[in-house]
Amino acid sequence: MKLQKENKFKQMVVSGLSKAAIIAGIGVFGFSFLPNFMSMIETKLDSNKQTEIVTQAINPEYEEEKQNLNLEENYYVPQEFTEKYDFQKLKEINPDIVAVLEGSCFEGGYYPIVKTDNQDEMNYYLNHSVDNQKSSLGTIFTDCNTDENSQIQRIWGHNFNNGGNTMFTKLANICQNQQEFDNSIGQDHSLKLYTENGEYDLDVAACVINNPTTQNVGTYNDQNQFINDMNNAINNSVIQTNTQINPNDQIIILTTCTNLGSSKDPNNRISVYCKKTPTLIKEMNHGKTL
């Protein structure tokens, strides 16, 4: 009887210690998880805010006007044509906004894009939202050394490596997997760019993992070198596409971190090369290379 009581007492002690250890473990896990959880909430709210800003700038007359256009011969439209996004309204929120990037791989379907004049201003948007608030989400921005007339323009965005579709997170996942690419943006061709001057399809030509600074941006003086560089990107691509690049084409490179290694490693970047094809251009730009 005495032995049974001692064994029972030991079991109670062990059980109590086990429960205490579990509770302590949950507490430690909770405290360690809380900052990440709060960061995820903040990122989600900031992403929704950017989507809302763009949504409120959509012109309701756009779809009706577009349906009445005759675009069989070319893609030029009257200067007074109502663009899909009211850039005047967007610039009232932030004068640095120059474009809207659309795609089925983006949360909410689209993001505003900003353009600055120098590296310091560009880095500002690494941790500031489009309405100039401190934010871990940041804002998608174009390379300050290029503009919409550049033959190669780079656009930067974060990858949060959380399985979601915030900013360039899902884009990075899709473009590192042939099957996922084929079943999504490779099939729906949903990547599009909207500016004050026109609209463009962005067809993925290659996805390269390397140090992005090794790729020239701007406009090439030697078109043979341009084609050589584009062929090199295609040959080193982790996915295969049907997009063909010609000497006079324009390229948009969407760049972010991969899901592998350290974000501080410059070689740990994924660059998605997209052929920029005009679909609607205002007549005031007729004859101008965009």
Instruction: Give, in spatial order, the strands making up the sheet with the most strands.
Output: 2-3-4-5-8-9-7-6
What is the name of the CATH architecture?
A: Beta Barrel
What's the alpha carbon Rg, rounded to whole Å? 25 Å
Mean pLDDT: 84
Number of strand elements: 9
Integer count of domains: 1
CATH top level label: Mainly Beta
How much of the polypeptide forms β-strand, as a percent range? Answer: 15-25%
Number of distinct helices: 8
Shape: globular
CATH superfamily descriptor: Sortase
Could you give the distance between the termini? 92 Å
Low-pLDDT segments: 1-35, 286-290
Structural class, please?
Answer: alpha/beta
Structural notes for this entry:
The chain is of the alpha/beta class. The protein has one domain (34-285): Beta Barrel (Sortase, Chain: A). It contains 8 helices and 9 strands. It has helices spanning 2-55, 62-67, 87-93, 119-124, 169-174, 178-182, 185-188, 223-235, and strands spanning 76-77, 97-102, 110-114, 140-142, 152-156, 192-195, 198-210, 250-257, 269-282. It has an 8-stranded mixed beta barrel. A hairpin with a 7-residue loop joins strand 2 and strand 3. The longest helix is centred in the N-terminal third of the chain and has 54 residues, at 2-55. The chain is globular.
Which structural traits does this protein have?
290 residues; 21% strand; globular; disordered N terminus; disordered C terminus
Briefly say what this structure is.
The protein contains 8 helices and 9 strands.
